[in-house]
């Protein structure tokens, strides 16, 4: 059985904090480590819970999440100009 990699939109669990949610961002630090940003659902009283940063080593994919078609980039992008 092949191991499936984690990607934006997947539903993951932080195995240390036992928090499950959808990945909304990926961070790659200068030392090469990768973390995922997840947005937990709203609390029972309707207040928003802040995003959680999950180290890749502690992330476990638990299912399909939300996948959308990428939109074209807008505005000025310095990397595209040379």
In short:
The protein is mainly β.
Content of β-strand:
35-45%
Provide the low-confidence segments as ranges.
none
Largest sheet: 5 strands, antiparallel
- What is the terminal-to-terminal distance? 45 Å
Estimate the global geometry from the Cα principal axes.
Answer: globular
Determine the number of helices (DSSP H or I, runs of at least 4 residues): 0
Give the helices and strands as they follow along the chain. Answer: EEEEE
Side-by-side strand order of the widest sheet: 4-3-2-1-5
Classify the helix fraction into a percent range.
Answer: under 10%
Protein structure class = mainly beta
* Rg over CA atoms: 15 Å
Question: What does this protein look like?
Answer:
This protein is mainly β and 82 residues long. It has a domain at 11-66. 0% of the residues lie in helices and 35% in strands. It has a five-stranded antiparallel sheet with strand order 4-3-2-1-5, with no helix packed on it. Strand 2 (19-28) and strand 3 (34-39) form a beta hairpin. The radius of gyration is 15 Å and the shape is globular. The mean pLDDT is 86.
Task: Describe the structure using short key phrases.
single chain, mainly beta, 5-stranded antiparallel β-sheet
Topology:
Blueprint: E1 11-14, E2 19-28, E3 34-39, E4 52-55, E5 59-63
């Amino acid at each position: 059985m092949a191991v499936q990699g984690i990607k934006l939109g997947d539903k993951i669990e932080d195995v240390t904090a036992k928090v499950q949610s959808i990945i909304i961002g990926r961070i790659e630090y200068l030392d090469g480590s990768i973390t995922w940003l997840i947005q937990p659902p709203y609390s029972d009283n309707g207040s928003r819970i802040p995003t959680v940063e999950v180290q890749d080593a502690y992330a476990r994919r638990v299912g399909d999440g939300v996948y959308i078609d990428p939109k074209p980039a807008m505005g000025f992008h310095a990397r595209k100009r040379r």
